[in-house]
Amino acid sequence: MAVSPVVQMFGIEKRFGEVQALKGVDLEVREREVHALLGENGAGKTTLMRILAGELGPDKGTVTINGQVVNRFSPSEAQKRGVGFVAQNFRLVPTLTVEENLSLSLPTKALCERAKRLAQELGWARGWDDEVASLSLGERQRLEIARVLAKEPQILILDEPTASLSPLEVEGFFSLLKGPAFDGMSVVFITHRLGEVAQVADRVTILRQGQKVGTFSGSTPIDRLAEMMVGPIEVRTNEQNRMKEPGQLLLVVKGLWVRSDRGTWAVEEAHLTVQEGEIVGIAGVDGNGQRELLEALWGIRPLQKGEVWLDGQPIQPHPSLWWTKGVAFLPPEPTRSLTFLSWSLKENALVRIRNRLSFLLDRRSASSLAEQWRSTFSIQADRIDRKVEELSGGNRQRWGIAMAMGLPARLLLLANPTQGLDVAGAAFVRRLILQKRDDGCGILLVSSDLDEVLDLSDRVFVISRGRLHRTEAKTAQEVGLLMGGVTVH
């Protein structure tokens, strides 16, 4: 029996200045299906979904929802037609509490209570009076999804919903996606993780450079989907072609205690070392102290107890001091933390030169550096005078990574380095990490992507409830249990 389409998009075109983001794209979403949308960063996935959600209007083309042509494009109009949109960039007010955020976006107390119930079904374990600024990325994402689900949409758009979740959380989320909270909905699922397509998608549509490649069954082999997206990809893991053994001791962390924003202990008596030419990985469920540990090491969060040593000497962490010593930090949200969005690529490169070098600033050097990063990191910008805020989301992410990793470094502190990147972008960053390791750089890699930690790391730690544990576990199942606080014998 034929299944009725609830969404039909025909010949959709959209241009932003000189860049044509969508070039005659068609999309059909059927009743009660999970439809994955795949493509490289800048392929047009989010732009297409923002049109469906009413945030943008198409330059050309037709959008039909439940057989009715859409003539007015606005978020309120889309919501009336049953469209809910969970964006990748969370639409929460950090300075307000969870309760206040729900009240701000949901007009009735009944909807707020429904959002709370849904949040608990999604694994919510925080207080309603906690400030959103104190939540982890995974917690903010669950709150955002619950807030949209409370309005009972018929068509739900999820833009990279698992990007901030640990493997255990992803597994739980997929179970929920097939459960009663999503029952009866048609779901459009944007993801850069190809393995997720086989787990949840009934069908998948691939976009490439603003054009539709095709729509395929969710059971299509992953390697075929990847090749249709970006062409053949080679990803070197840590088991391959290791150049040399680790060198001298570089970073030593002794008995580190760090408090959370709420004043509780986020990190308790952490000990670790990083040598030249090795990658030390930390795996953990988001919200177990990873963010606080990295912020303390970088010097933007106070150390309550403990010591940090570099090259055999005690040091008081501070960003400006670290930069001068060849230490770089890639924070969880590099686009916001490292870049000035309203500045051009060249102006941002100038800032990085100022961080690292003490001599007179040279704008020609900044131009050369910006051009080099634009090429090396495959950033789709027509000129280095282009403002960062004018780039697509994926290209902003690549630029943030360039700002952190584009200059030579002795020590790298990395937080979820491939989060939000497409397959090709993630493969490039992982190759870059391994190359820097082979060049003698010491790397502390903190990632919620368990496969990434296991593939890249020379030594692995697990963080659970603020405690670091060295592990010899080799399988994702064993490490995943440790991340959840389960002792593996």
Strand order of the main beta sheet, please?
6-7-8-3-9-10
Average predicted local confidence, pLDDT: 84
Largest sheet: 6 strands, mixed
- Taking the alpha carbons of the first and last residues, their distance comes to 51 Å
Ranges with pLDDT <50 over ≥5 residues? none
Helix proportion range: 25-40%
Rounded to an integer in angstroms, the radius of gyration calculated over CA atoms is: 23 Å
What does this protein look like?
- The protein is α/β, with parallel strands linked by helices and 489 residues long.
- It is 34% helix and 26% strand.
- It has helices at 45-52, 75-80, 98-105, 109-121, 137-149, 167-177, 194-200, 222-230, 290-298, 319-324, 334-338, 345-356, 363-376, 393-405, 423-438, 450-456, 476-483; strands at residues 5-16, 19-30, 34-38, 60-65, 68-69, 83-86, 155-159, 186-190, 203-208, 211-217, 249-259, 265-275, 279-283, 305-310, 313-314, 327-330, 411-415, 442-447, 459-464, 467-471.
- The chain has a 6-stranded mixed β-sheet, sandwiched between helices. The protein has a 6-stranded mixed β-sheet with strand order 16-17-18-13-19-20, sandwiched between helices. Strands 2-1-4-5 form a 4-stranded antiparallel β-sheet, covered by helices on one side.
- Helix 12 packs across helix 13.
- The longest helix has 16 residues, at 423-438.
- It is globular, with a radius of gyration of 23 Å.
- The model has no long low-confidence stretch (mean pLDDT 84).
Supply the key terms.
alpha/beta, 26% strand, 489 residues, six-stranded mixed sheet
